[in-house]
Amino acid sequence: MKVEKLKELDLKRLTRKSYGDDQILEQRVTEILKRVQEDGEEAIYQLTEEFDHVNLRQSGLRVTDEEIQEAYQEVSEDFLQALRTAKANILRYHEKQKRTSWLEPDADGSLLGQLLLPLKRVGIYVPGGTASYPSSVLMNALPAVVAGVKEIVMVSPPGMDGTLLPEVLVAAAEAGVSEVYKVGGAQGIAALAYGTETIVQVDKITGPGNIYVTLAKKQVFGTVDIDMLAGPSEILILVDESGDPEELAADLLSQAEHDRLASAILVSPSQELLEQTMVAVERQLADLPRAEIARASWETYGAAILVSDLQEGMDLANQIAPEHFELVVQDPYSWLGQVRNVGAVFLGRYSPEPVGDYFAGPNHVLPTGGSARFYSPLNVDMFMKKVSVIGYSEAALKRDARQIALLARSEGLEAHARAVEVRFRGREEAKKI
Fold first, then answer.
1. E strands within 18-110?
2. One domain for residues 67 and 103
3. How confident is the model at residue 149 (pLDDT cuts 50, 70, 90)?
4. Which pick of 224, 249, 251, 426 has the fewest CB atoms within 10 Å?
């Protein structure tokens, strides 16, 4: 890889993000969803054996209380303490997001307002198999807990032995998950969206997964709500000459190791720093356990971009709209007001992206693929619905009836107008409407 100048840059390569428009995979997912809709758990058993090579008839579909208790025996006290501290941080942050219902009475006796109500039942998807993502459990479940959701259902693909990893089960118990099922992929999304003999349909599905999961969420939207269509992870780092190449390389690789399609971009007005960081990336790749994945990501979707100054770099960041944006400059707070299109911003060298992934408190389920231009991180509002409240008094309707009827008739909707006027039939007021 070489340093690229902004004016010579192929932005299409960095803003590709076609993670959910594969027509062949779309059709496969459609078939999976249809099988679960029609055959319920029998389809889930068959699909899990086909894709995950696990016999759920033997291992069981639902995780039992005994399995969760056993999981507690298998994790260390240090892990449990770290998990509980992260949980406290996440709860504290999300509590500040919660809003309340409001009602506003008027002097004429009418009342307007808005009810904020939690969803009754939500499903969270947690990637699994050989990988362990307890942080994803916390980030998806805890905002729902803060919102007041009573039933939180988790699905996750089982390992070859038909179990879920103990760290994930402990995280589910600590986060207040009501039910846990050993099913993943598109069939797991289908089970949540349509319901089965055992799994009751949910109102909303959240959580990231592979492309099958993403396409399944895309297709069930409308039957249930979803959080977002999550694509490969992204990081963009804007750095001045004060940056440390070893730290920057580590931050870039922290995202590149996620997925071959992940994007890691370094932007700076210092060519020397860009070149030193690329050397550091190669050095760190040598002993990285997930080096093969990270290298594929770095070589295909990575970039070291030379800009004329930090302002040009900030403009580029807002154009790309990355999931994670590290602002590693001498006075990052002075630039915060210019941040527009990013999922999460990390200020200064002591705020590396993993702080947000695991511990600080803000949610790590973030918009990807440029959707940070218009979308937000997973938050408490996403687990609530708003109900409008209208309580007109007789005096208020009398005051507004003529204008309401006029607007209704302007749209050719006579019955709408009459529904207002009929309340004053035979009365003197009717002549004024």
1. 102-105
2. yes
3. very high
4. 426
Task: Find out whether 303 and 352 touch, Cβ atoms under 8 Å.
Answer: no
Query: Is 411 marked within a binding site?
Result: yes
What is the three-class DSSP state of 122?
A: strand
Q: Do 200 and 241 have their domain in common?
A: no
**What token pair was written down for 234?**
């992204």
Q: What angle do CA 323, 327, 332 make, to 5 degrees?
A: 140
CATH number, domain of 97, equals 3.40.50.1980
Residue 149 domain-assigned?
A: yes
Is 357 marked as a binding-site residue?
yes
Say if residue 10 is in the same domain as residue 36. Answer: no
Q: Which residues are catalytic?
A: 323-324
390-428 tens-digit pLDDT: 999 999 999 999 999 999 999 999 999 999 999 998 766
114 annotated as ligand-binding = no
Sequence-distant (6+) residues with CB within 8 A of 54 are: 48, 158, 159, 160, 162, 182
Report which of 93, 110, 122 is spatially closest to residue 385, judged by C-alpha positions: 122
DSSP class of 180: E
Match 């999300």 to its residue by tokens. 94
Helix, coil or strand: residue 351: coil
Whole-angstrom Cα distance, residue 30 to residue 243?
48
Reading the block at residue 58, the tokens are 């033997």
Among 392, 401, 399, smallest CA distance to 420 is for: 401
Q: Residue 163 CB: number of other CB atoms within 10 A?
A: 19
